[in-house]
Amino acid sequence: MAETIISLQNAVVSYREDVALQGVTLEIQRGELVGILGPNGSGKTTILTLVNGLGKLLQGNVRVLNHAAGSSFPATLRKKIGYVPQVHNIDPRMPVSVKEVVMMGRYGQLGMLRRPGAPDRQMVESMLRLVGMTHLAERPIGHLSGGEQQRVAIARALAQEPDILLLDEPTTGLDRRARTEIMHMVHEIHRDRGLTTLMVTHEHKTAAALCNRVILMKEGRVWAHGQPRELLRETVLNRLYDL
Ligand SMILES: Nc1ncnc2c1ncn2[C@@H]1O[C@H](COP(=O)(O)OP(=O)(O)OP(=O)(O)O)[C@@H](O)[C@H]1O
């Protein structure tokens, strides 16, 4: 039976003068891969922030994994949510290796002051293998290409052993090949683990092929939601983007 693990009811979020979400209601079932698409500034990232327990609600409510999100969002809950933010260029001088970045994903499980043990190291190795980054494990994170950095970010999120994976435009700035590889990886992770995945993306063709469901955002509202094949069509997208 379907189990709702994310629910937003009439969520309103505003940042100083901008209203980012103007009353968003949506539900995500366990095991779904849902794409969030829409024009720049339509509130897509803000939805991920709310699900990650970090956004400030002006109105409405948010429940994630059976907890009300907000100021009382427990840290234990955030550990169950793997968040892959939009890639930003990492300073090449950053003195942290790929392996150490992925180990950061274990810190939530380790708790304060506990040192990583053999199971944590094994988890890191297995996630590096999963994303095809074993050969670069010792390299400083800032010396990787954008596509490689994105793989590492996904490995770090998975090393958390999350119940929910949030991806914010995982292919932005990547070349065609890296984009295809990352999307293929997202698809495989979802298929093999049945991990509930919420992905903000501008890639409507890939989203049409991969997602179980899509949510189209416009001006802080859910403009449409439903089957990718019905919604991610040229005529609908032209209206969504006012073309
Ligand atoms: N930290 C912030 N402070 C002030 N305004 C913000 C902040 N974050 C987002 N906004 C505003 O809220 C609105 C929604 O932003 P959001 O980042 O959720 O949109 P988006 O759909 O993810 O956009 P994009 O496709 O450009 O990433 C925008 O008008 C944006 O300018």
TrEMBL record:
PROSITE patterns: ABC_TRANSPORTER_1, ABC_TRANSPORTER_2. Residues 6-243 form the ABC transporter domain. Pfam families: ABC_tran. Coiled coil: none annotated. Transmembrane segments: none annotated. It comes from the Bacteria. Keywords: ATP-binding, Nucleotide-binding, Transport. InterPro entries: AAA+_ATPase (IPR003593), ABC_transporter-like_ATP-bd (IPR003439), ABC_transporter-like_CS (IPR017871), Metal_Ion_Import_ABC (IPR050153), P-loop_NTPase (IPR027417). One of its GO terms (molecular function) is ATP binding. Gene3D superfamilies: P-loop containing nucleotide triphosphate hydrolases (3.40.50.300). This is Manganese/iron transport system ATP-binding protein.
